Structure formats: structure tokens, C-alpha cells
Amino acid sequence: MDIVYNIPKLIPVKDKIEVFETIDYCHRKIIDGDIIFDDILPPGFQTDGASIPRPFWAIYPPWGIYRIPAIWHDWDYRFHTRQISRYNADKYFNKGMKMIDNLSRFDRRLIYLAVRFFGGDAWEKSFTKNLKLEAGE
Q1: Fewest CB within 10 A of the end CB: N or C in the chain?
Q2: Average pLDDT for residues 46-61, to the nearest whole number?
Q3: What is the C-alpha R_g of the chain?
Q4: pLDDT digits over 84-95, tens only?
């Protein structure tokens, strides 16, 4: 599997702690076997980086070296009703972290397992919200 990212340009969102917004389009291409997945992250997308609980920020800050895969993971979780499964969103996040030279295998694995274990609620909430938006509610 190969992933190619453009690095998004971000600005802080007023009145929101640790939330940033993209200011230009950003491209990602994933080649996963026979599947080629092209995606565009639009300007105005808001992200909190890695959604790590505050007590762990000293060890794993939300804007750590894994921030680029985390931004795309946020995108995948928020807008996934037709494009990507939760398993694949987490798999692509993990692969993105593998591309980071100075992120240890232990840290990457711990972050990935936390996402797999605790990410279900966020996935379900965004899925329900997206279905309501599509239905015009």
C-alpha cells in the first residue's frame, strides 16, 4: 500500500482551543492493491489533530509528528458514508504513521490500537450526522 499526501496549510480557529482550519485544497492518493483512492481535503475543514484525551497530551500531543495522518483520519471519520470503511480509515492512518521515521513502532501501535478501541463512537456519531444531512434533516 502506498499513500501520498500534500501537507495542508492550517490556521488556528478563533475561540477554539487546539482546533485548526485548512486554508487551501490538499490532495491524498492511496494505492491499496487494485484500489486507487484519490481524495481532496477542502479549505475550511476544521480538525483537532489527533483526538487524544488531554491527560495524555504531555506524552502524545494532538499536534505531534503524526499530525498529517491524523488530519486525514479526521476527514475520513467525518465524511465517510460512501467512500471509506472505518477499518480502512484506521488502516490508512496507521500506514501514514508508518511513513514517519522518528515515530517509534511502540508509539504508532499504541495510537493505532487506541483509535481501533475508542474510535467507534466518533465513527457512529459522524455516520448518523451524515445520513441526516443527506436526508435533508
Answers
A1: C
A2: 90
A3: 15
A4: 889 999 999 999
Q: What is the spatial distance between Cα 82 and Cα 74, in angstroms, rounded to a whole number?
A: 15
CA distances from 94 to 17, 53, 66, 111 (A): 26, 19, 10, 8
Q: In angstroms, rounded to a whole number, what is the distance separating the alpha carbons of residues 105 and 125?
A: 30
Report pTM: 0.87
How far is Cα 120 from Cα 104, in angstroms, rounded to an integer? 25
Q: How far apart are CA 34 and CA 58, in angstroms?
A: 40
User: Own/partner pairs for 65-68, CB < 8 Å, 24+ apart?
Assistant: 65/100, 65/102, 65/103, 66/96, 66/97, 66/100, 66/103, 66/108, 66/111, 68/5, 68/7, 68/8, 68/96
Q: What is the pLDDT of residue 37?
A: 84
3-class secondary structure, 107: helix
